[in-house]
Amino acid sequence: MKKILLPTDFSENSWNAIVYALQLFKNEKCKFYLLNVYTPVIYQTEYLYGSPALFSGPTEFGVPDPIGETSLQLLKDFKDRINKEFKNTKHSIETISVFNTLISEIKELVEEKAIDYVVMGTKGATGAKEVLFGSNTVHVFKSIKCTVLAIPQNFKFETPHEILFPTDYEIEFTEKQLQPLIDITSLYISRINILNVSYGYELSETQEKNKKELEKLFENTAYLFHSVVNESVPEAISEFQLRARINLLVMINNKHSFFENLFFKNTVNQIGFHLNIPFLLIPAKTKKS
């Protein structure tokens, strides 16, 4: 059974991501955890600078918690909506409303529930369309050791027939690490487009070895190797994505790969790359590795 965490702030953006997850895994037996994290403004300073372990929320002190009550009601509404519009006997849903910070709670649940995927909606910061993801998504990418699937605002589900997997072949690939990608590929008989971007240099001995390992790991999957020379990684991804009608972008969040350079720049101008398809980010070391 797949265990999938769905953080929500009850926006249409987060609902859209939930719908994507329900459709992507419609033929899989899944346990979905619908999560809303809240920190009432009046308590944020004391909570964030105090000890979360010693402070479970305003009700601990007998203070009414209307935000918590609203959170519970809205979670119930979302769950009812899911059961009405996407009823699936293979799916079960548990709601979680908690007074905490988003990253702390996701970390705890990933460990406690053995989560396989975190699926969340994402959109650029207001007034800055060049920003790939909202700050919450970026923090999850950087902090959570779990596979994260980010769904762009307003993206409607498409069967992931063509998957783009950019890599520099600098890391040793393992079956457990690539299992999330292999699982999705097997569900939809997808083709993996492995894209390497270089500046004209031949692959090193280590890179060649890692490339051959990929061939073994993908032996039961349709795949193609592609090589692009003298283009930046963002340009190559963007052009290939459009040319090949890619439905899903997949990367491994290796600390020393081009991923950090691509997504964690400090200024908007350094990003200059727009993503309008779902993005699956696999940690270099998974919880099961």
Automatic annotation (TrEMBL):
Q: Which Gene3D superfamilies match?
A: 3.40.50.12370
Domain UspA: residue ranges: 1-152
Question: What are the boundaries of the signal sequence?
Answer: none
Pfam families from the entry?
Usp
> What domain of life does the UniProt record list for this protein's source?
Bacteria
Hey, which family's this protein in? Answer: Belongs to the universal stress protein A family.
Name recorded for this polypeptide = Universal stress protein
Species assigned in the record: Gaetbulibacter aquiaggeris
